[in-house]
Design a protein that fits this description.
Blueprint lengths: L2 E5 L8 E5 L9 E10 L2 H8 L15 E8 L11 E4 L10 E5 L4 E2 L6 H21 L7 E4 L5 H12 L3 E6 L2 H9 L4 E4 L4 H8 L5 E6 L6 H5 L2 E9 L13 H5 L4 E3 L3 H4 L3 H16 L7 E6 L3 H9 L6 E5 L1
Parallel strand pairs: 8-9, 8-11, 9-10, 11-12, 12-13, 14-15
Antiparallel strand pairs: 1-2, 3-4, 3-6, 3-15, 4-5, 5-7
Length: about 325
């Protein structure tokens, strides 16, 4: 028996239905994973609403999970039956008790990483990894800005950037989230509604920033640009407040010959060697204790709709997992 959360049309959380589905058999190059924990991420909302298009409807959403390999198809060398594994790069389909996917998208879990930890940090941790180590490689002594600093990616980025010797400015929506961000490495916190560029100017003594990491999107795009020093890098990697409207690229020249990028984890981990290296980097910082994963919410997988409501209402902090 196998169950999954499926959507038959795009819309609100009420579109998510707990249904019995066939147990799939792995095709050549695939593995069947019996899932022990599933990660909740804002990208799941985008697929549910239709901002990001699912290949077809009905669809099972979800990008990451951890579990045990139950069967493998032909020509699989990356994993074997009984391996503890995790994944975070899609395709969608994680909101299920069991699923198949390409074996080369799976990474083996070290003994010191639990299923719940892996489901909580694989996508968010590897997102933090490519943002801080590849998209813009932060340097010791730099001051950086992380939006949504009390969210899953934000808390990891604050800790990791602090570990790398950065001064971290975080933005949050409430004072309670400000305390959480500070406890996880944010040196300065700016609340929603404050004049962000003015706060950054004060904190940096007018020097402004080499990079801004923005997962909020529409509401913070222009203020984020105004926080950058000449030649600064604007990293827009999410749309929590809605997609950024069309931009006249001349604004980048006017504000200091700025750079703008819209990266994705899928691109940075498209090659298996890059996927494995990114995952190992995350395993290392979590295993060493330099980055601690806060699993602050747990829901039964069948109650994923309520998890989505809480996520969109900004009631969640840190990481959230769904338990099959």
């Amino acid at each position: 028996m196998n169950h999954a959360i499926r959507i038959h049309e795009n819309g609100g959380p009420e579109q998510m239905q707990w249904e019995e589905v066939p147990l799939p058999r792995p095709k050549p190059g695939e593995a069947l994973v019996r899932q022990h924990a599933v990660g909740l991420n804002y990208i799941d909302v985008y697929f549910r609403t239709g901002l990001y298009k699912a290949p077809a409807l009905p669809a099972t959403i979800g990008m990451e999970a951890a579990g045990v390999v139950e069967a493998v198809g032909e020509d699989v060398s990356e994993v074997a039956v009984g391996d503890r594994v995790a994944y975070a790069t899609g395709p969608i389909g994680a909101y299920a008790e069991a699923r198949t996917l390409k074996a080369d998208r799976l990474v083996k879990l070290p003994d010191n990483i639990s299923f719940e930890q892996a489901a909580a940090f694989m996508l968010q941790g590897m997102t933090a990894q490519y943002l801080l180590r590849s998209t813009y490689r932060v340097k010791e002594g730099e001051t950086i800005l992380v939006h949504a600093a009390a969210g899953g990616v934000g808390l990891i980025m604050c800790q990791w950037a602090k570990h790398l010797g950065c001064t971290v400015i975080g933005t949050v929506s409430t004072e309670a989230k400000a305390e959480l961000a500070r406890a996880n490495g944010a040196d300065h916190v700016v609340l929603a509604g404050e004049d962000l560029p003015a706060a950054v100017k004060r904190i940096t003594g007018g020097a402004m920033l080499p990079v801004v990491y923005d997962s909020v999107g529409r509401d913070t795009f222009i203020p984020s640009l105004d926080c950058l020093a000449p030649f600064g890098v604007m990293v827009s990697f999410g749309n929590a407040s809605g997609p950024v409207p069309p931009v006249d690229i001349g604004i980048l020249a006017a504000k200091g010959s700025l750079f703008l990028t819209r990266p994705t984890l899928a691109t940075y981990t498209a090659k298996r060697e890059d996927l494995v290296a990114a995952a190992q980097d995350v395993f290392d910082v979590v295993g060493s204790g330099a980055v601690k994963i806060a699993i602050n919410q747990r829901y039964p997988l069948r109650e994923a709709a309520q998890a989505h409501r809480d996520l969109e209402a900004r009631k969640t902090t840190g990481s959230t997992i769904l338990l099959p």
